[in-house]
Amino acid sequence: MSNDNEKVQNKDDLALQEAKPKIRRPPLYKVVLINDDYTPMEFVVHVLENFFKMNREKATRIMLHVHTRGKGVCGIYTRDIAETKVYQVNEYSRANQHPLLCSMEEA
Length: 107
Ligand code: TYC
Description:
This protein is of the alpha+beta class. The protein contains four helices and three strands. Helices cover 53% and strands 20% of the residues. Strands 2-1-3 form a three-stranded antiparallel beta sheet. α2 (41-51) packs across α3 (56-69). It starts with a helix and ends with a strand. The model is unreliable at 1-11 (pLDDT under 50). L-tyrosinamide (TYC) binds next to β1, α2 and α3.
C-alpha cells in the first residue's frame, strides 16, 4: 500500500535526523519552616541542626528569620529528597508534641 510506503519513508527520514538530546535539570523544591506560637525556639534550632545539617549559628539565624518573618527556607532539593525532609521533620515534631510545620514549594 502507498500509505505503508509513506510510513516507511517517514521512518527513514527520522532515522537520518541528528539526535538532539534534550537533557533537563530536575525541578528543585524549597523546604520551608512555618512559624507558630508554641514550638520552642530550641526545638526549631535542634531540627535545623539535625535534619538540615546546619551549625548552631546558622540554625539560630534561620530560626529567628522564621520567627520574625513567618516562614523561611531550610534548603533546596530535588523532589524526592524535599518530600522526605518534610515528612521526617513533621513526624519528628508530632512525636515530640510540637505543632512545627515543614512544607515544600517549587524553587
Ligand atoms: N515562634 C516560636 C516561639 O516564639 C519559635 C518558632 C520559630 C516556631 C520558628 C516555629 O518555625 C518556627 N517559641
